[in-house]
Amino acid sequence: MSTLLLKNIRCLATMDEERREMAGAWILIRDRQIIGLGSAETSPPDDIDRVIDLSNHVVLPGLVNCHHHMFQSLTRVMGQQEDLFGWLRACYSLWAKMRSEHVYAAARLAMAELLLSGCATASDHHYIFPNDVQLEDEIRAAQEMGIRFHASRGSMSLGEGHGGLPPDEVVEREDDILRDSQRLIETWHDPAPQSMLRIVVAPCSPFSVTVDLMRESAALARAYRLQMHTHLAETDADVAYSLERFGLRPGDYAEAMGWVGDDVWHAHCVKLDQPAIDLFARTGTGVCHCPSSNMRLASGIAPIRQMLDCRVKVGLGVDGSASNDSGHLLNEARQALLLQRAQGDPAALSAREALELATRGGAAILGRDDIGQIAAGKSADIVAFRLDGLEMAGALHDPLAALVFCQPQRVDLSIINGRIVVEDGQLLTADVPRIVAAHNRLSRQLMRGES
Question: Could you tell me if 341 and 380 lie in one domain?
Answer without folding.
Answer: no
